[in-house]
Design brief:
The structure holds 2 protein chains of 2 kinds. By secondary structure, chain A is mainly alpha-helical. Chain A is 68% helix and 4% strand. The N and C termini of chain A lie far apart (42 Å).
Amino acid sequence: MRKALTALVRAYQMATSNFAPRCKYYPSCSNYAITAIGRYGLKGLAMAAGRLVRCNPWSQGGVDYVDEHLDCADVKNLLTNSEKEVVGAN
Amino acid sequence: MGFILNPLYNAVSGVIVFIHKLLSPVFGANSGVTWSLSIMGLVVIIRIILIPLFVKQIKSQRALTALQPHMKAIQKKYKDDRQKQSEEMMKLYKEHKTNPLASCFPILAQAPIFFALFTVLNGIAAKTPEGVSAPIARGFLKGEYLDSAAQATFFGAKISQSFLGSTDTTVKIVTVLLIIFMSGTTFTTQRQLMVKGMPKMDSSNNMMLQQQKIMLYLFPVIFAISGVNFPVGVLIYWSTTNLWTWGQQYYVIKRNPTPGSPAYEELQRKRAHKEKADGKAIEGIDQDEATEAEVQGQRQQPKKKKKKK
């Protein structure tokens, strides 16, 4: 089911890619949905729906990750950098 | 689902019936013109409601010019890290309470209405298994209205019938023409935006431009595939909304284009020309060239102030 849902979102992304990244949030609603569904399944779907509601003209937008502590750039950089260090040490 | 959809049916059919009532004395209660105009009126009302959102969006996009230096700095600082770059960009927008990116709301808001209209019109077209017409009433579209709407025509095609659901040649011709019209308006809207409405592209945007070109030609295909399944009434809705989008964009590009876009330069030239004709040539050019002149204590120029927004 996760795969089917993800495929649906991907299809949406392909169909609307001409409008360029359009979301006022980062990551975009669709990318958010893919991460959330991949990680939480049905609950992720509900989270994605919540994000769509939040993504309205009266909200400010901004950075909004599924899991801040897993997804944000700083964490990812830390991970890749520590890997590099290990490689360097070897 | 009923409790969500019934209000929508009521709203859509209510508006249609209301406009129908208004127009009946002019075109006649059973006239196809009245029913077609009722559907178009629904579009116009929805799009007028959405205009403030559109204006807000444009203003937000324009406010971006002031943030340009900050954005350049961020791009430079995190040029190897796309994710961090996007994060910082979003934080910057939020900090300045502006966001150039539209939320999906205006498009999503139309989807339920579109769906409700589809169902209402399909209800009109409903038939018994034996093929006898048996319209289903939804919302306020019932009784005599329902019977009248079921018979209403748009250029000779019943508004309740679709390309695939009908053997009538007129319906087929009208649906095809409407699909061509829909594709045409979307195509021109998109092209107009690409050619005139956007700031000049740098190389990083080339991929986006490429994608847009593909979509430009893919849209008619999508319309053709989905359009043959929709009743003529829905196609009228769709065509009108596309036409509105085109008009709205045409107006914005003509009268208030994005700074940096070809249309903007054209307008600037036109204005400079006009001012010259009015005998304010020297002043006008001065304003255009020395943007920071105001800071140096030049006298207040109300017109200039407006532009700065």
